[in-house]
UniProtKB/TrEMBL annotation:
Gene3D superfamilies: Immunoglobulins. Coiled coil: none annotated. This is Ig-like domain-containing protein. Residues 30-102, 133-224 form the Ig-like domain. It is found in: Membrane. Keywords: Membrane, Signal, Transmembrane. It comes from the Eukaryota. It comes from Cirrhinus mrigala (Mrigala). GO terms for cellular component: membrane. The keyword Oxidoreductase does not apply. It holds the Pfam family V-set.
């Protein structure tokens, strides 16, 4: 009330002479004010000042025109064309309250009363953050008595203040700065498509005069700034959500513009210090996080295995440019409980043939890309090379399950594979790896006939060319292994076995002659204890069983056991290895299959196969076989069904 009475008295005294020689400016603690002091045309080139006392120790003065001049919290701009100068005072305090003069040193002056009020809703200062390309909105609260007043939004810069928008100006929704006034108690300012140039300090204000009434067109107005916003712009390229599973692995690739491909990269977990990727074009490790800075592609690759809930966090992969302006991509990693994925599986593949791997993935990822990768020596799962991808065929089998068929399997395919769902965004590719497959290799079975010879061929990597090769019955370098021959042994000492090591073809060949039933079994080619490749030797007995029967009748075929305590089986196929793999009809474990049945007579050393209701198409080649721990001995059977 006292301040209002003082203002009324001042206004009355200032108007006695018929012109405005003095006026009041109202601000608030912590806020800012901006106002104009007018002058006559003949005073354009004279020094201007705004001071609290004669020596101007508090205030500012200048002869400079059309450029902002600064002195601590005070700034002055002389606009000679419009015959006024503007005064800006920032960060007001109650000590600033009092009488000032604006004018020149010769012919004129105005008395200015600066009133600094204390108001909880005025003079606030906040810090806001935004990312490049995004939109941000500020809310500026004002006293309800100013709901009809003009609202303004300014920016502090080198000038130091620049008006960006006003509630009285016409606005388009496409403008960068949009001001919307509720005309109740606040107005909002929206900044669109933010760039790094938008970092800085902004001011919300109300245009008013010395009373609380709405100013008229002839009023001597000023701006009371009620809020100060410090905007920090981060160079975030994008933010994505990545889901992974406990005990599984996740692969993330962050892509950056080509202009940054030579810059050093970093990884950051939550608010922890940045982890620099010190080496480029090679995998580096920090705790359990593996990182790869690929300068050829401008990518950063991140691989985390054996996930736990402690790995759930917000990660940043970024480019080192400047401490406050490093562009980065934000990855929000969630690690879920795994209730549907198998821990791991083992598969065996025959070199030269195909193998099928089964993979699970969350059904909600049905539209994502199916992915498979292979662990390297550092147990980092890396993408299959483009030259090899053509041998990998993907297909969906049921909901949440897909299969991968690897064709024409070779030595280099052995190892550990992971499969899962791949999700691609514009700047981020993530793969949640859910299934682990350990793939071992074996050579195609070697079939030798009793009394004849057989060649066991062992291919090896070129790096083993000068090493000694081994052929063992049983896995080499284990207690139960039987050493058959080494590449440096003289075959004269083993008359039925010879060896040849072709270092140009990287092929170690063992020839076994005068084959017997006991030669059947699983053999292993090995180099040191680093390379072990299993090969099955099947022995076909000399004797051939021939059986004739009629259509509609039955056939009873007696098969002799060569060894004791074996499992018998009966299969159909032109070749014994194909018969064993695909054509088994009945066995000691599964003695009934449609028209086929098997009866074991172990005391007599035989098993009998019965085929009922014979058909003409039953004619063909069959095999009586026996198996013991993966060792096969077979006898050829010819069945002729007459009409």
């Amino acid at each position: 009330m006292k301040a209002t009475i003082i203002i009324i008295i001042i206004i009355t005294l200032c108007l006695i002479s018929g012109q405005v020689l003095c006026f009041s400016v109202i601000g608030c603690t912590g806020g800012s004010v901006m106002f104009k002091c007018t002058y006559k045309s003949n005073d354009q080139h004279k020094e201007k000042y705004f001071c609290r006392n004669r020596d101007c120790t508090t205030g500012i003065s200048t002869e400079t025109q059309r450029r902002w001049v600064n002195n601590s919290r005070f700034a002055l701009y002389d606009d000679k064309n419009n015959r006024f100068f503007t005064v800006f005072i920032r960060n007001l305090s109650r000590e600033d309250d009092g009488e000032y003069t604006c004018g020149n040193n010769q012919t004129w002056s105005h008395n200015v009363t600066l009133v600094v009020n204390k108001n909880s809703s005025c003079g606030t200062s906040v810090i806001r953050s935004a990312n490049i390309g995004k939109t941000i909105t500020f809310s500026c609260k004002y006293d309800r008595k100013f709901k009809k007043h003009t609202k303004v939004f300014y920016r502090l810069n080198a000038d130091p203040v620049h008006v960006l928008n006003s509630s009285q100006s016409s606005q388009s929704s496409e403008e960068k700065f949009i001001l919307s006034d509720s005309q109740k108690d606040h107005f909002n300012v929206t900044i669109r498509d933010i760039s790094t140039a938008d970092s800085g300090v902004y001011l919300c204000g109300v245009e008013r005069h010395e009373s609380d009434d709405q100013p008229s067109e002839t009023s001597n107005t000023h701006i009371t700034f009620i809020k100060e916003i410090h905007l920090n712009v981060h160079s975030q390229i994008t933010s994505v959500q990545v889901e992974a599973y406990i005990s599984k692995s996740v692969f993330i690739k962050c892509k950056f513009p080509q202009k940054f491909k030579e810059n050093k990269k970093f990884i950051q977990k939550d608010s922890s210090p940045k982890i620099p990727v010190d080496e480029q074009n090679q995998w580096v490790r920090h705790d359990k996080v593996h990182m790869y800075d690929d300068t050829s592609e401008g990518d950063v690759k991140v691989f985390i295995s054996d996930l736990t809930t402690a790995d759930e966090a917000t990660y940043r992969c970024g480019v080192n440019i400047a401490d406050d302006d490093d562009p980065f991509t934000e990855i929000k990693l969630t690690v879920n409980q795994d209730h549907q994925f198998s821990t791991s599986s083992k598969s065996a593949a025959v070199i030269g043939e195909s193998v099928k791997l089964t993979c699970n993935y969350p059904e909600k990822h049905n539209e994502t890309i199916k992915h498979i990768c292979k662990e390297n020596k550092k147990k980092i799962c890396q993408n299959i090379s483009s030259s090899e991808k053509k041998r990998f065929e993907f297909s969906d089998s049921t909901a949440g399950v897909f299969t991968v068929i690897i064709s024409n399997v070779s030595r280099r395919d052995a190892g550990v594979y992971w499969c899962g769902a791949e999700t691609r965004h514009k700047h981020v590719t993530s793969v949640s790896l859910t299934n682990k497959h350990e793939l071992t290799l074996t050579m195609p079975p070697v079939v030798g006939r009793e009394g004849d010879s057989a060649e066991i061929k062992c291919p090896y990597d070129a790096k083993y060319a000068k090493e000694i090769k081994h052929l063992c019955k049983g896995k080499c370098f284990t207690e139960d292994a039987q050493n058959i021959i080494k590449s440096d042994e003289d075959h004269v000492k083993k008359t039925k076995i010879s060896v040849k090591d072709d270092t140009e073809l990287n092929l170690f060949t063992v020839t076994m002659t005068e084959l017997r039933a006991e030669d059947a079994g699983k053999y292993w080619c090995a180099v040191k204890d680093e390379f072990n490749l299993p090969i099955e030797l099947m022995i076909v007995m000399k004797d051939v069983i021939t059986h004739e029967a009629s259509v509609g009748g039955s056939a009873s075929i007696s098969c002799k056991y060569i060894r004791n305590q074996n499992q018998g089986f009966f299969c159909r196929g032109d070749q014994p290895n194909i018969c064993v793999r695909d054509g088994v009809r009945v066995s000691s474990k599964s003695s009934k299959n449609g028209r086929f049945s098997l009866t074991d007579e172990t005391s007599a050393g035989v098993f009998t196969v019965n085929i009922s209701n014979l058909r003409a198409e039953d004619s063909g080649k069959y095999w009586c076989g026996e198996e013991n721990s993966g060792s096969f001995i077979l006898t050829e059977v010819h069945l002729h069904v007459k009409k």
